[in-house]
Specification:
322 residues; alpha+beta; Alpha-Beta Plaits; 2 domains; seven-stranded antiparallel β-sheet; five-stranded mixed β-sheet; 9 helices; 15 strands; 25% strand; elongated
């Protein structure tokens, strides 16, 4: 969750020289002050042994006394001692700027709110799509796979874009047809992948729900699983792909989906990536990710998010609703 700290300008006036040169990046320390004479819920924010402000507080409208904000209580109760700096700006008179003119005047932190989340969107938070987030991680160490695919699908950039758009459109149509089929609705059989009947016979999919949006307030991502239901009697999340075979990125994507899915209080015990572009007799290729691997993949993505936050990675686009 992103939080703007308070009291920073007052601290700057007390420590003018430091705040005219401070350009904070990386980690800050969160220090509870239960003996604070004004607010016993106060949580001080220190950067390199310099006090730069406090977490936002909350007052009672009736008594005017501090009663502790959700973020203050969360930090103290969960013993959270650090947070990441997301962004900052300077203030010169009434002018807030990014040119380091004047004093450090505003700092926004990224605070771990995993335990505050109940699957809904954290107030004021900005989320990326899962696929956009994973794009910051290249498990193959370079873009050779994408480059090769591009050259296979056109000699110019325009031809490549046309092939990419057609792939996306065909994939969306296939997803819609599969979802309608599983729901017992009318669907266009011509849009179904050739390996569908063989997949159904082997894995007996039983849909609970599909395309319900979640918000992960740890990774700050959002997504919609293609399928949450039972595969051969096992509660699982499935991602349908039109590619030739499942990739590492596909496995990471569906692992994040699985960590944010449940049915009647039960968490999925597996995740599947099903690629219907496979050039084999059955017409599909399957990767099953078990519970332990889901956890391992998620830990890796959590470390990626922490690394991005620590380095101040610029994120150009957030999910804005559909």
């Amino acid at each position: 969750m992103e939080i703007k700290i308070t009291g920073i300008q007052a601290a700057g006036k007390r420590n003018f020289k430091t705040f005219s040169e401070l350009r904070p990046t990386g980690v800050v320390r969160l220090i509870p002050e239960p003996d604070n004479e004004y607010d016993k819920y106060a949580v001080r924010v220190d950067y390199r042994d310099t006090q730069i402000g406090y977490l936002p507080a909350q007052k009672s409208g009736e008594t005017g006394k501090y009663i502790g904000s959700d973020i203050q209580k969360h930090v103290v109760e969960n013993n959270i001692t650090t947070a990441m700096i997301k962004e900052y700006c300077y203030v010169d008179g009434d002018d807030f700027n990014n040119e380091h003119r004047g004093l450090l005047g505003s700092v926004t932190l990224s605070v771990d709110v995993e335990d505050m989340s109940s699957g809904g969107r954290a107030f004021g938070a900005r989320h990326q799509r899962v696929t956009s987030f994973i794009s910051y991680f290249d498990p193959y160490g370079g873009g050779d796979g994408l480059i090769n695919w591009a050259f296979d699908n056109g000699n110019t950039f325009e031809e490549y874009k046309e092939a990419l758009n057609k792939t996306a459109e065909d994939g969306a149509a296939m997803h819609d047809a599969i979802e309608s089929c599983l729901k017992g609705e009318v669907y266009d059989k011509d849009l179904m992948p050739k390996g569908w009947d063989a997949f159904v016979k082997k894995y007996e999919p039983d849909l609970c729900y599909a395309e319900q949006r979640f918000f992960d307030n740890t990774l700050m991502v959002t997504g919609q699983p293609d399928f949450v239901g039972y595969i051969n009697g096992e509660l699982a999340v499935v991602d349908w792909k039109s590619s030739k075979k499942p990739s590492i990125k596909h496995a990471l994507q569906v692992s994040i989906y699985a960590k944010n899915a449940q049915w009647n209080g039960e968490e999925p015990s597996a995740a599947y990536v099903v690629a219907f572009g496979a050039e084999n007799k059955q017409g599909f290729s399957v990767t099953r990710i078990d519970k332990e691997k889901i956890e391992s993949n998620y830990i890796g993505m959590r470390l990626l998010r922490q690394c991005m936050d620590a380095c101040g990675v610029w994120i150009s686009k957030y999910w804005e609703g559909e």
